[in-house]
Amino acid sequence: MSQHRRRARPERFFGPVAAALFLLVAFAAVAHASGSGWVQAMGAVTTGLAAVGMVGPAVLARRLTVTCVECPRDANSGEPFTISVVANHPLRCAARRPGGAATVVPATEARELTITPPTRGVLTAVRLRLGTAAPLGLLWWSVDRVVLLPTLIEVAPTYGQGVVFGSEDGREDEGRGRPVLALTGDLRGVRAYRHGDSRRRVHWRATAHTASLMVRETEQQPDSPVRVIAELSEDPAAAERQASDAMGAVIDLLANGKRVVLETIEHGARVAAPVTDRRQAGRRLARAGTNPYADLISPPMRQR
Question: Which end of the chain has fewer CB atoms at under 10 Å, N or C?
Fold first, then answer.
């Protein structure tokens, strides 16, 4: 995560400051050796200009603001998208979270800013770094601002392998925490519990008789939907892998003509609803589990 700059700070200040000090010392030495009044006057003017060029951008940076006027509704993890921003002063703008390329934004004119989200989630704001070297361009000062978006952006996970527990390829894959593929239909029998099975499928009577955990196994009807259960981990990296696997499973099932019911936990509540295309699945998985970008709207970082 990049460093926050809640207050204006200089960027790469050693070179400009060292050059200004060297110039002032040179003027002072020449003025002392020559005793000429015009040299002393030039030194005083240079000192004033250097002070303005070094400190002036700091004062202006504190007043920099940016407004987002347009943004997309959907985005994909790892793929760039653009938002349109308007600034109150000419400045250099770079997306910091999620990250993106820097661009120059003129005053009161909309300019597109490219952002590339590294993970899935819901974006209600973005953190931008605003910089200026006005009025003389001697030293850059920058400050971070959290800019609220005009509409939330739901970032879908990447397209995973689509292998889930309950499918033929995923039965021996232990410990990955992949989403459970649960087939609805008539009860076919019971079997031993496998890692990833939903707790709602536990057959308690068979468990009591066998002294080991047993689950129901159902037989899918031709027209019954396939239920994909995506319970994401609290660990961000694991949650991203699980969401990617669930996304791949849903897309593969839809491509094969299956009807899919996606079950997730959104805002602390369990949601089970049909999904008919990739966009719906991406939005559901973007809202599932813990939002990686929830901290962006914390009060200390909001733009005033």
Answer: C
